[in-house]
Amino acid sequence: MIRLFAAIPLPEAMRERLSRLNGGVPGARWVAPENMHITLRFIGEVDEGRAQDIDAALDTVTAQPFPLTLSGLGNFGRGHRAHTLWVGVEKNPALHHLRDKVESAVVRAGLPAEERKYSPHITLARLKDTNSAKLGRFLEENGMFQDGPIMVERFCLYESILGRSGPVYHEVRSYPLGGWSPGGDEAGEE
Ligand code: 2AM
After folding, report:
1. Is 37 known to be catalytic?
2. What distance in Å separates the CA atoms of residue 1 and residue 31, rounded to the nearest whole number?
């Protein structure tokens, strides 16, 4: 079995800037810059055959490259139950369009549809029993964070290998955006 997810990789310079935010939240486990990405679809554990079907389906996804800007910070989980500290993405219909296409591809490959609403983000840290006043201060101090825009020109399929010191992600396939498509999507006809 192989644990997979589809995501947008981020340029190294951007990941380095993101990693400079780390500090000031006691108990946070900060994500290493090489592990930062924007998930499009978490796939989970699949067998080799299904992984090949997913790869083939993702290979048919067509979309134009698009700009993307990071903006703001937030957390998932309330109060002392906060579990994820993240950087947000400025409103971006093209990103949601790409996510929808990735979602359809994954469903075509035989996976059940994602039930949860898509909230694009970059996880900065995992939290556990975090002091909510300190977290609140961190969010206030860094809430104006902005970075980009970058051009999103590809998305990737990643393998997640769970280990004692956290997951390690490997890019297993890269899917370029742009180019010709029989559906006319690339001509901006939608
Ligand atoms: P997260 O960073 O908000 O946890 C690899 O695990 C990527 O898939 C992460 O970016 C993670 O988002 C995302 N993901 C979405 N749903 C997941 C799930 N049920 N389990 C693990 N990761 C998930």
Report:
1. yes
2. 25
pLDDT tens column, 18-69: 999 988 898 899 999 999 999 999 999 999 999 999 999 999 999 999 999 9
Is the peptide bond between 93 and the residue preceding it cis, with omega within 30 degrees of 0?
no
Q: What spacing in Å lies between the alpha carbon of 181 and ligand 1's midpoint?
A: 30
* Type and span of the H or E element at 13: helix 12-19
Q: Residues with beta carbon inside 6 Å of ligand 1?
A: 5, 39, 42, 84, 123, 160
pTM for the full predicted model: 0.93
Give the distance (Å) from ligand 1 centre to CA of residue 28: 17
**HSE-up of residue 39 (Cα within 13 Å, Cβ side):** 19
| H helices present in 60-165, as ranges | 93-108, 132-142
Q: Spell out the domains of the chain, with CATH numbers in brackets.
A: 2-176 (3.90.1140.10)
For atom 17 of ligand 1, the residue with the nearest CA is 42
